[in-house]
Amino acid sequence: MAGRYRYDRLSGGWWWSPEMFTVHGLPATSAQSAAEDLLGQQKAEDRTRILEAVARACTDGRAFALESRILRADGAERTVVLVGEPVRGGDGDVAAVEGMCIDITECRPPGSDVERAQALEAEVGQLRAAMASRAAIEQAKGILMLLTSCGDQVAFDLLAHISSHTHRKVRDIAEVITRSAAGQTRLPDDVRAIIRDACPPTQPLR
């Protein structure tokens, strides 16, 4: 079981998916209580590490993946992996932290402690890669929404269209667009041509 969350740095607000509440054994409540729920159910010795990881993600843009233990509302102790990825706003500063909380209690690999640690490290690496891809896609969608004056779904459809017609993965297209917007590289000509065609006359691609 895995739940998703988002922490908005500017407002201090939290959003939890329904699965996030399930992982913690809680009924769906308001977003305002999510932070208290998240920290309140962590084992005391794990809370400081989580607070420090979230703070570093906000200030230094560091992603994190931590194993911790939670005490559910029903008294059961569960082992979870908390993954977080910084999401930068248009000004380049971290605007939010998005991530997942994965309950690994029932799926810990058999074997020695070293083998379990290696298996967990590999799994966390895959989760962090997935989160990084998702963050790049969300940023690219935002850029396309600004360029083409379209909505969220249309922006994703445009990403998929570019992917299909240039024979690149959506993730790779998203990374190219975000790097170009940051001035780190130039858009490939085929990607540039498709985006230019999608831009309204009043919002040309430069």
Report on this model:
- The structure is a single chain.
- This protein is α+β, with helices and mostly antiparallel strands.
- The protein has two domains: 2-108, Beta-Lactamase; 111-206, no CATH class.
- The protein is 50% helix and 19% strand.
- The protein is built from seven helices and five strands, in the order ββαααβββαααα.
- A five-stranded antiparallel beta sheet has the order 2-1-5-4-3, sandwiched between helices.
- β4 (77-88) and β5 (94-103) form a beta hairpin.
- α4 crosses α5, α4 (113-148) packs across α6 and α5 crosses α6 (170-181).
- The longest helix has 36 residues, at 113-148.
- The radius of gyration is 19 Å and the shape is elongated.
- The model has no long low-confidence stretch (mean pLDDT 77).
Give a short summary of the structure.
It catalyses: ATP + protein L-histidine = ADP + protein N-phospho-L-histidine. By secondary structure, this protein is of the alpha+beta class. The chain is 50% helix and 19% strand.
